[in-house]
From TrEMBL:
Domain F-box per the UniProt entry, residue ranges: 21-67
Domain of life (superkingdom): Eukaryota
Organism encoding this protein: Nicotiana attenuata
SMART domains, per the entry: FBOX
Xref: PANTHER family: F-BOX PROTEIN PP2-A13-LIKE, F-BOX PROTEIN PP2-A15
Name of the gene this protein is made from: PP2A13_3
Name of this chain's protein: F-box protein pp2-a13
Length: 293
């Protein structure tokens, strides 16, 4: 009994003296890096602040290579003209997660910070719009509400046709394509957002048609009445599948309302968005919430 008590006391003294205690700093860096590799990029960045071991482990190349899209070399070299040699994978992820402009500033590319999915946006200036050169019908107007700082504004027209095309090397997966549109022209007055609806008309008479086509036969068509006055809405055109990430994917898309029995006007065309279908589902859910409200 006395011997057992003495043994317990000696172990407690050892614990109290800290000889058997372990701290986070004592975990091997390789073990920390392995654990971090199973987390999403935002979680990795948060844990990198814990201590120097976690910070060093969070920079391991094998962690970030698994977060990068499979075509990251194409994105850096062919699209952005950057030299990949010597770059750490964490730095590559940080560079690609920022907005990267190309094609004369009419297109932007970035990867989603949560899952590394490739996203693209095409501005109204990167599309072909019937009558865009006639100021009686269309104008390019500046706005802070567009990532491109400008939108195409329709005052009035009989024949609405907006066409675009894209050639891009996507990683394998399923993607969604959206038109970002708004009815009404927004301005600021005394610091408040005000929507001018003077030119808004004709959209309740006939639906507009969205279309997506690809050389391999994939096609999507959707129709809807526009009613989003003063609210930017991502209108879902359709989804497409990329099977071979080593070849360039070619896409054509359009927005039309060519019923010439009536005029329509007051439409702002901002951009077209292409994103992984997981993000597309979030956008569609968000749009549904807006409509419900």
């Amino acid at each position: 009994m006395g011997a057992n008590a003495s043994s317990i006391d000696s172990r407690e003294d050892g614990l109290n003296n800290g000889s058997l205690k372990r701290k986070l700093e004592d975990i091997p860096e390789a073990c920390v890096a392995l654990v971090l590799s199973y987390l999403d990029p935002p979680e990795i960045c948060k844990l990198a602040r814990v201590n120097r071991v976690f910070r060093a482990a969070s920079s391991a190349d094998f962690i970030w290579e698994s977060k990068l899209p499979s075509n990251y070399i194409y994105l850096l070299k062919e699209l952005l003209g950057m030299n990949v040699a010597g770059m750490h994978k964490k730095d590559i992820f940080a560079r690609l997660s920022k907005t990267n402009s190309f094609d004369g500033g009419t297109k932007e590319m970035w990867i989603d910070k949560n899952n590394g999915g490739v996203c693209l946006a095409i501005s109204s200036k990167g599309m072909t719009i019937t009558g865009i050169d006639d100021r009686r019908y269309w104008n390019h107007i500046p706005t802070e509400e567009s990532r491109f700082q400008t939108v195409a504004y329709l005052q009035q027209i009989w024949w609405l046709e907006v066409d675009g095309d894209l050639e891009f090397q996507f990683p394998a997966g399923t993607y969604s394509l959206f038109f970002r549109l708004q009815l009404g022209r927004v301005a600021k007055r005394l610091g408040r957002r005000v929507c001018n609806t003077d030119h808004v008309h004709g959209w309740d008479l006939k639906p507009v048609q969205f279309q997506l086509t690809m050389p391999n036969g994939q096609r999507a068509i959707s129709r809807c009445y526009l009613d989003n006055v003063g609210t930017w809405t991502h209108h879902h055109v359709g989804d497409f599948v990329v099977e071979d990430p080593t070849v360039v994917t070619k896409i054509k898309f359009s927005l039309i309302q060519i019923d010439c029995t009536h005029t329509k006007g007051g439409l702002c065309v901002d951009s077209v968005l292409v994103c992984p279908i997981s993000l597309g589902k979030e956008l569609r859910s968000f749009n549904s919430l807006i409509v419900t409200k």
